[in-house]
Specification:
It holds the Pfam family Ribonuc_L-PSP. This protein is α+β, with helices and mostly antiparallel strands.
Amino acid sequence: MNQVISAKNAPAALGPYSHAVQAGGTLYLSGQLGLDPVSGALPQGVEAQARQSLENIGAVLSAAGMTYADVVKTTVFLADMQDFAAINAIYAEYFKDVCPARSCVQAAALPKGALFEMEAIAVK
């Protein structure tokens, strides 16, 4: 049976979707923008948005009893591929020893005019 995961420390979903759904030992996390969970605002700059997005991912992982170490796959969406190097440095702060598989694509547009979004799959 699938279980919906909702994190109190992550921003509310912008539409009809869950923060994550757990199917067996696998957790499928919806894309997280860099929205501040309290104000709902996007910080200025791709680095700040990437850091907040990763913190939001961490909150959802925690709500499911998981950590960044359980993440096996991520997909990063950038508004501008020129930001690739900058976000790599921030990403490396969260994924240190065994890095998950990753895709990174430039999106024509992201919700709320965001510069960064990330989704993930984790396995316990």
